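> forwarded from #structure-qc
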């Protein structure tokens, strides 16, 4: 599988906006904002959670919320507040909140189809 990156405009409660290049990670539950980005936006921790990395390592990170705008849609999403060295990730919770999916074959962001029962 190839890597997919997307640019998004993110904003926090202060109204400051910032363009961030995210790695789309279909294996990540939450999106992650690097330290410099979330501090610039004025985000503050709302809660803390433990995450398990692909190698089994457990890490604790704070979580906040911001507004994320992609070319395909926009909305609020929880985000992990990254620490030094963390890369911006776009996870599945953000994609679902925006009504989007990562197409598994061509690695593009597309609107999700809603199935009615």
């Amino acid at each position: 599988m190839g890597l997919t990156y997307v640019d998004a405009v993110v904003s926090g409660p202060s109204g400051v906006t910032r363009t961030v290049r995210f790695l789309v990670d279909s294996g990540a539950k939450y999106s992650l904002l690097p330290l410099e980005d979330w501090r610039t936006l004025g985000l503050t921790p709302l809660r803390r959670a433990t995450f398990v990395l692909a190698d089994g390592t457990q890490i604790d990170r704070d979580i906040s919320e911001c507004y994320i705008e992609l070319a395909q849609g926009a909305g609020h999403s929880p985000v992990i507040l990254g620490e030094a060295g963390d890369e911006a990730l776009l996870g599945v919770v953000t994609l679902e909140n925006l009504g989007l999916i990562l197409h598994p074959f061509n690695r593009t962001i597309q609107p999700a189809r809603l199935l009615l029962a």
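QC bot note: The chain has one domain: 5-111. The radius of gyration is 14 Å.
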